[in-house]
Every structure is written in structure tokens, then in C-alpha cells.
Design brief:
- The chain has one helix at residues 286-290; strands at residues 2-4, 7-13, 29-32, 45-46, 69-75, 78-90, 93-104, 112-119, 135-142, 158-165, 174-180, 192-197, 210-213, 231-236, 241-250, 253-261, 273-276, 294-298, 304-306, 311-319, 336-343.
- The model has no long low-confidence stretch (mean pLDDT 87).
- By secondary structure, it is mainly β.
- 1% of the residues lie in helices and 41% in strands.
- The protein is built from 1 helix and 21 strands.
Length: 348
């Protein structure tokens, strides 16, 4: 999200956009200035090129099928986007191999490569390799709000906390921090990775203060749940909790899962809540019923809180899959939907 004049622009980066006709695969970009998503949903304006949407372009970086934008943020009057690139096949599955960070002053133009954020070195992840931040969800913070950040978090400055996962839907989540210096493009050498916790210290919870490393291979999981692909990682100020939203399975049911924590590094809820499940929540259409929904991206601009009911409402996008190998085109496949859920922090 970025502000221009009196308007706030919220940008949406779509992966592998297509209509099924012609050579139209690509990653579309849209934006909205809507202050609320209700009652009629969001009004998106797509950035257009030659007779179709303008694709996300990062010169020198492949952005073909399965190579998609995963998240973004704004800083120094620029838009920044994380994107996956480089595909290798393992068995019958395709997995992204690298993550890059790119930026542009205007989303109508090409994005310039800032750096390779994370890379897998071989088809098998090992503790010695990186590749733990292929899918990235960033959250911009004020450093002073979160004691326990790395030494390069300047007092009075801003930074980026980044949750990441590695091998698609076969990875637990990890955490990194990167300072955001005024007017400067971030540098990869500034990245610090959560590697553990020191002895108990008042104000930091049962695990003590976090310990950070310059090496991605030192990263430890935030919690053990090796099924994470697309993810959202946000701080909900009304609840005073960090939220981690992802698709997965728990207690024999699959859908959209939610965990929460008082701090970005935890402790995270030991058991995920099932936030959305197709049958339970009355989803319509075979692709929502029979194919697991995925891609839950929280749009924090629209967070709401009711002080009477104590409900916090979050809005997020969600896509339906296509698990059938047939020619039935009566329903759209891989369609992006706008969803909302009401959350309440229940005291233990």
C-alpha cells in the first residue's frame, strides 16, 4: 500500500493470470483506492498494456508459469515485490527454486531487481542450504515497538519482519528481519535470521530474547508444521496478536488455518484453528468443495474491530483450485475470491 495525494493505493499482484485464450499468461497488477470492501466488494483497476493487462516484468528474471509474485510492501516512495523464479521438477511436481526482491517507483513500469532473496541449491533441502524464504510474507514495523530485534535495527527507525517458507507446501515457517533505511533500497547483507533464543529474561516470554544470525541456514522453524506454501503474516493491532494464515490440514480437515502469537517470534499457538473449511462454511461450486482452497492473503488495510462484540474482522483473498482433469468449463478455475472472517481473542 502507498499514499499518493489524498488517496491510499492498495496494489494486488496476481500470479499466472490467464483467460484460457491466446498467449495471455502473465502476472497482472491491479490497484484500488476503496476505503472499505463492503458492501459490493473491491473495485480493482488493472494496469493495462497492449490490448491486455501489463505483465509484471523484472528484466533478467524469468516469470513464467509457477513463477509468481508472493508479496509486497512500500518504502522510500517505491513499491517492492517479492517473486519466485526458477522452476525445477521433482517427480510430477514443480517447485520454485529462488526468491527475488524487486522495486519500482511506478507499477506501470518495469520493476528493477534488488537482490536474490533466497535460493535452493538442489532438489533436497538440507540444514546446510538456504532456500527457507522462497515464499515470503513481509510486515513493516517501527523498530522501537519490538524489543528483541537484531543489533542492526536502528532506534527510531523502521524495519521489515519477514515470514518465509521453503519447499512449496513441504516446509515449516521461518523468520527474518531487515532494516529499512530512509530513502534507501534494502540490502540483502542486512538480513538477519532467527536462530534461537537465549536464557529467560523478563518481558520476552518463556523462551527468552530471540537470537539472530547473518546466515539463512541457521534459521529455525517458528513452529513445526511442514505443509506451508502461500502464507500471510500480519500484526492485528486490535487483538494485539501476530497472525499466521496458511492453507493446510488439521484434525483431519483441510482448509485455511490460523495461528497467533504475542510476538513475531512466538510463542505461536501450538494447535492451528480451522479458519475456513469449504463444506463447514457452505462454499458453493465443485472447485471450492472438491479442491482445496489456497492462497490466503490478508488485506490488513481493511481490518475492523467491534469494541462491543470484541470481534476483529479480517479480509483476505482466497483462490479455488482445479483438481479435476476434465473439460467442464461451467465454473471458473483458480478464481480469486474476497473473504472475511471474524476473530476474537479468548482469554485462557
Amino acid at each position: 500500500m502507498r499514499q499518493t495525494g489524498y488517496h491510499f493505493f492498495t496494489y494486488f499482484f496476481f500470479g499466472d493470470t490467464h483467460t484460457g485464450t491466446g498467449d495471455q499468461d502473465g502476472d497482472a497488477i491491479a490497484f484500488t483506492t476503496d476505503d472499505t470492501p463492503e458492501p459490493g466488494g473491491l473495485h480493482l483497476q488493472f494496469i493495462m498494456g497492449d490490448n491486455q493487462w501489463r505483465r509484471l516484468v523484472i528484466p533478467g528474471i524469468s516469470l513464467g508459469n509457477f513463477e509468481t509474485p508472493t508479496s509486497g510492501f512500500s518504502h522510500a516512495n517505491r513499491l517492492f515485490v517479492f517473486a519466485t523464479t526458477g522452476i525445477f521438477r521433482e517427480g510430477t511436481d514443480k517447485f520454485p527454486q529462488n526468491s527475488v526482491l524487486a522495486s519500482a517507483e511506478d507499477a506501470h513500469n518495469n520493476f528493477n531487481l534488488c537482490f536474490f532473496n533466497s535460493s535452493r541449491h538442489d532438489p533436497v533441502d538440507t540444514p546446510q542450504t538456504g532456500g527457507k524464504f522462497i515464499n515470503v510474507a513481509p510486515w513493516k514495523i517501527r523498530n522501537d515497538d519490538w524489543p528483541g530485534l537484531p543489533d542492526n535495527a536502528a532506534p527510531g527507525g523502521e524495519g521489515l519482519l519477514m515470514a518465509g517458507s521453503g519447499k512449496y507446501r513441504r516446509s515449516s515457517p521461518y523468520l527474518a528481519y531487515m532494516p529499512l533505511r530512509p530513502g534507501e533500497i534494502p540490502r540483502r547483507t542486512d538480513l538477519r535470521y532467527l536462530k534461537g533464543f537465549s536464557l529467560f529474561e523478563p518481558g520476552f516470554g518463556p523462551s527468552g530474547p530471540p537470537v539472530w544470525s547473518e546466515s539463512e541456514s541457521d534459521s529455525i522453524p517458528l513452529f513445526d508444521d511442514p505443509q506451508i506454501g502461500e502464507l500471510s503474516f500480519v500484526f492485528n493491532s486490535a487483538l494485539g496478536r501476530w497472525l499466521f494464515v496458511y492453507n493446510g490440514c488439521a484434525d483431519g480437515k483441510c482448509g485455511i488455518l490460523l495461528r497467533s502469537a504475542p510476538r513475531a517470534w512466538g510463542p505461536w499457538s501450538a494447535v492451528p484453528q480451522l479458519m475456513f473449511e469449504s463444506v463447514r462454511d457452505g462454499a458453493q461450486g465443485k472447485y471450492m468443495f472438491e479442491c482445496a482452497p489456497y492462497g490466503p492473503y490478508v488485506i490488513s488495510r481493511y481490518d475492523r474491530f467491534d469494541p462491543v462484540s470484541k470481534n476483529a474482522t479480517i479480509y483476505y483473498t482466497l483462490s479455488n483450485g482445479s483438481c479435476r482433469q476434465d473439460n467442464d468449463n461451467s465454473e471458473p478455475r483458480y478464481q480469486v475470491h474476497l473473504m472475511k472472517s471474524d476473530l476474537r481473542l479468548v482469554p485462557k
